[in-house]
TrEMBL record, chain A:
Stated name of the protein: Carbohydrate ABC transporter permease
Location of this chain's protein in the cell: Cell membrane
Domain of life: Bacteria
Keywords of the record: Cell membrane, Membrane, Transmembrane, Transmembrane helix, Transport
GO biological process: transmembrane transport
UniProt xrefs under Pfam families: BPD_transp_1
Family statement drawn from the similarity comment of this UniProt entry: Belongs to the binding-protein-dependent transport system permease family.
Protein's UniProt keywords contain Zinc: no
Domain annotation ABC transmembrane type-1: ranges: 72-265
UniProtKB/TrEMBL annotation, chain B:
GO-annotated cellular components: ATP-binding cassette (ABC) transporter complex, substrate-binding subunit-containing
Assigned protein family: Belongs to the ABC transporter superfamily.
The protein's name: sn-glycerol-3-phosphate ABC transporter ATP-binding protein UgpC
GO annotation terms (biological process): carbohydrate transport
Domain ABC transporter: 4-234
Superkingdom assignment: Bacteria
Subcellular location per the Swiss-Prot or TrEMBL entry: Cell inner membrane
Alphabetical list of SUPFAM superfamilies matching this protein: MOP-like, P-loop containing nucleoside triphosphate hydrolases
Alphabetical list of Pfam families matching this protein: ABC_tran, TOBE_2
Membrane topology type: Peripheral membrane protein
């Protein structure tokens, strides 16, 4: 794909892309700008694209109203654990399904995939009872364990399996001749080459965990254990009315790591793709 | 270094048998080429020697060790794959030293071995590059470097040159042969290209549909093929085959009677008359044949002729000025005539 576009087409294409960008960028822009507006101005119509006054005290109030730093940390370490755990398990499981022939492998894979079809709302009550009997209610354990062994991990396993199937098997045979055992082949050959797939898995697992809402509100009850999506619902005045600007300030801070993860993972993704240029 | 012995080796995938009992003895230091048409089981056989494929039945020994149940890493072999299988995420030097690294060789020793191999193969300047930054021929060399650093007992090559263009193939052919002459490591080399087989091998094993058709030195196979399959497979352009009957008066075929060599079993029978393109000479008292195509090659001239109702190809050392439609008189060299059984294809003379 190295076709040079004529200048006029180029202008047209870029113009069109700018227009298409608006619905994607506007909500974020609105969120960030509204977080520094007085509440009365947030719902003004037509909306002010550029706020008339900047009031950054909303960012301070986020931390007064909630143990927000603690909640931030909760979300961060849970998402990190879930991401690392999922990458580890899904790559190993995906590799096994792709490369190891064992009786019932296909059937087992189908059973695993079926897990994707069950909505989390269906399993949340039995899960609650299970974790209750394990004494894990109002701890972070369910939020770590459920995604690592649940639907997001199943999807990740599927992605990894497809990637490993496509990897030339000669590379691993060469490694076998070079003297490596199964696990070392996985660890030093297959896994490093799976960077693009791992990056994709990392992005969606992190996002899934970071945005998890149903599970925290079911499993957690004390504010200092809350995760961010749950905390965002707590910014109200004494009468239960929403403090929109404070809430949006919290939301802006919540969105920041997502942006960072995207940028890092995307770079990995592209570099990884370049790496797999096996043959020319 | 070691000998390799295959004894009645068989392979089946489920119910389909693909190797039907192969016996081959490879002497220490020998360069053996497995050659045969696509799908005949060359790669399968090589991979069984490597340990990448299980052995359904029979025995493979390297040196005096039966290796049937040994992992590839314990067989002390090195393999060069058709697509090279260089690790894309490692530099040339790491690729070459990788196997030593996993055998607990010291860093200094690895560096020394890699340098030694790079010296031999002219890779010194490329050691820090990644495989994607190399040309096809350079990748090929790195793959060979990876094989030789370890100084294994046996080298296995699976069609290593088939991804290269024709010119480079000739160059690399020479390099592999040179490498073997220098290191004298027992080598098994798989190809479907009979020119590669002829030029490189000490000994050729011709395979067809999972069976050995003939084993022998290149020129022995060329001069005395054991059957019609080997006769047709070895040599380019291929041997001419003419079907007909052996009679006391000569070989009777459609529209022509050919002279027969002496020493044939008595009695009339149907057979196939085989003559290589260079087995024909121009002779005023020879058989008349009609020219259909003349292809001057420079040192020789390739002429397509109708001999009776049979189309044959002849190659003459001299320049032939004939044109399509002309008649040439040709005489087969009786020393170089092969006769095969019409049914079994087995050699008769
Ligand atoms: N995993 C497999 N399952 C079933 N049949 C197989 C398998 N691998 C190879 N075969 C069959 O075994 C036969 C030999 O295959 P092999 O790859 O050894 O051929 P080859 O001589 O190397 O051919 P080529 O020159 O095309 O590489 C073929 O008929 C092939 O279809
Ligand atoms: Mg093959």
């Amino acid at each position: 794909m190295k076709t040079e576009l004529a200048p006029r087409t180029k202008v047209l294409v870029y113009g069109l892309m700018c227009v298409l960008l608006i619905p994607f960028v506007f909500p974020t822009w609105w969120m960030v700008t509204s977080s520094v507006k007085p509440i009365s101005q947030i719902f003004a119509f037509p909306p002010d694209i550029i706020p008339r006054s900047f009031d950054f005290t909303t960012y301070g109030r986020v931390f007064e109203l909630q143990p927000f730093a603690q909640q931030y940390w909760n979300s961060a370490y849970i998402a990190a654990l879930v991401t690392i755990g999922t990458m580890l398990f899904s790559s190993m499981a995906g590799y096994a399904f792709a490369r190891i022939r064992f009786p019932g492998a296909n059937l087992l894979f189908m059973v695993v995939l079926l897990g994707l079809l069950i909505p989390s709302e269906v399993t949340i009550v039995p899960l609650f009872q299970m974790f209750l009997s394990w004494g894990m209610i109002n701890t972070h354990w369910p939020l770590v364990l459920v995604p690592i062994f649940g639907a997001p991990s199943v999807f990740a396993t599927f992605v990894m399996r497809q990637f490993f199937i496509a990897l030339p098997v000669e590379l691993e045979e060469a490694a076998r001749v070079d003297g490596l055992g199964r696990f070392k082949i996985f660890w030093t050959i297959a896994l490093p080459l799976a960077r693009p797939a791992l990056a994709a898995v990392a992005i969606f697992t992190f996002l899934h965990s970071w945005n998890l809402y149903l599970e925290p509100i079911v499993f957690l009850s004390s504010p200092d254990r809350f995760t961010l999506p749950q905390a965002l619902t707590q910014f109200t005045d004494a009468y239960g009315g929403a403090l929109w600007n404070v809430q949006l300030a919290a939301a802006s801070m919540t969105a920041l790591p997502v942006l960072i993860v995207f940028i890092i993972a995307q770079k990995q993704f592209v570099e990884g793709l370049a790496h797999t240029g096996l043959k020319g | 270094m070691a000998s390799v012995t295959l004894t009645d080796v068989r392979k089946s995938y489920g119910a389909t048998a693909v190797i039907h009992g192969v016996d081959v003895d490879i002497a220490d230091g020998e360069f053996v080429v497995l050659v045969g048409p696509s799908g005949c089981g060359k790669s399968t056989l090589l991979r069984m020697v490597a340990g990448l494929e299980t052995i359904t039945d029979g025995e493979i020994a390297i040196g005096d060790r039966v290796v049937n149940d040994l992992e590839p890493k314990d067989r002390d072999i090195a393999m060069v794959f058709q697509n090279y299988a260089l690790y894309p995420h490692m530099t040339v030097a790491t690729n070459m030293g990788f196997s030593l690294e996993h055998r607990g060789t010291s860093k200094a020793q690895i560096a020394e071995r890699v340098k030694w191999a790079a010296d031999i193969l002219g890779l010194e300047a490329l050691l820090d590059r990644y495989p994607r930054q190399l040309s096809g021929g350079q990748r090929q060399r790195v793959a060979m470097g990876r094989a030789i650093v370890r100084n294994p007992q046996v080298f296995l090559f699976d069609e290593p040159l088939s991804n290269l263009d024709a010119k480079l193939r000739v160059v690399m052919r020479g390099e592999i042969k040179g490498l073997h002459q220098r290191l004298r490591t027992t080598t098994i080399y798989v190809t479907h290209d009979q020119v590669e087989a002829m030029t490189m091998a000490d000994k050729i094993v011709v395979l067809n549909a999972g069976r050995v058709e003939q084993v022998g030195a290149p020129l022995d196979l060329y001069d005395r093929p054991a059957n019609q399959f080997v006769a047709g497979f070895i040599g380019s352009p291929a041997m001419n085959f003419i079907g007909g009957r052996i009679t006391p008066g000569g070989f009777v075929a459609a529209g022509v009677t050919l002279p027969l060599p002496a020493g044939l079993p008595a009695g009339e029978r149907s057979a196939v008359y085989g003559a290589r393109p260079e087995a024909f000479a121009l002779a005023p008292d020879g058989l008349p044949a009609t020219v259909t195509l003349v292809e001057p090659m420079g040192p020789e001239t390739q002429v397509t002729l109708m001999l009776g109702e049979h189309q044959i190809i002849a190659v003459f050392r001299e320049r032939v000025k004939a044109r399509p439609g002309d008649t040439l008189h040709i005489r087969p060299d009786l020393e170089a005539i092969h006769l095969f059984d019409a049914e079994t294809g087995a050699r008769l003379n």
